Amino acid sequence: MTPDSPAVTASVQALGTHALLAFGAALLLVLVGVAVLWQLAQRYGLRREESRWPPLVYLAAYLALGFGIIASAAALFAEVAEMLGEGPQLGRLDLLFSDALRDSSSKSVLRVFAALTHLGDPVTLAVLCLLVALILLVQRQPWLAAGWVMAIVGNALLNPALKAIFARSRPAHDQSLVFADGWSFPSGHASSSVVAYGMLAYLLVRLLPPHWPASVRLVAVLLATVLAFTVGSSRVFLQVHFVSDVLAGFASGTAWLAVCIATLELIRYRLSFKRPG
Questions:
Q1: Coil, strand, or helix at residue 179?
Q2: CB atoms < 10 A from the CB of 226, how many?
Q3: Contact 35/222 with Cβ under 8 angstroms?
Q4: For residue range 12-48, what is the model confidence (pLDDT) as tens digits?
Q5: Among residues 18, 173, 211, 241, which one is catalytic?
Q6: For the purposes of burial, counting CB atoms within 10 Å of the CB of 225, is it exposed (0-12), middle (13-18) or buried (19 or more)?
């Protein structure tokens, strides 16, 4: 089935017409996937304190998982970018979805997404970056503070570089709700939300007291997933990005998040290895 086939066209228009339902279904699928991965991690060895496996095995497992995530996210980004460069088919589907969404979305729904989208604004994330870094330094976690800042700042440099490479124009949007300028691909709100809220969940998983139940950590991970997915999706509802922009933003953000977490786990292993006793 080709991208320009009638069946694909009809499916894209139907998804755009029922975009809110599609958003809910996609979010549910993502949450189920994250919860399953979490349970597998809990069951097969990521609770290092309760296992006889040596630390090196855990390091290898973390790095292998990180590499798999990086490779998968990079492959998704490359696939979307390739489709974007091969011809007008992807752009036509993006426009079909965007037009159908615009004609079917109510103002009240758009106002909700217009409020939520500010959770991914550069100013919001800059303030969050500073506050969390200060808290980590007060708690004498310099490596985590440095990793946190590296993740946020690194993505803030990476995304504009990718935008400049692809130089894709934004869709026309209602400027009374939200205004966005600059290039469109990939979505900076999508990538930065994945990185910021994903890193925040990682920090909570690492720093919450060990005696707290694993369900609390799972809630933190799921909440981060909801925030990142909702902020990214809001850009589509508000017509400031196409669907492919947001998918690419999710992919690039996930890849960078995996790099940052894998780096921190490597540092954590080296520090624990050097610690006497």
A1: coil
A2: 15
A3: yes
A4: 788 888 889 999 999 999 999 999 888 877 776 555 4
A5: 241
A6: buried
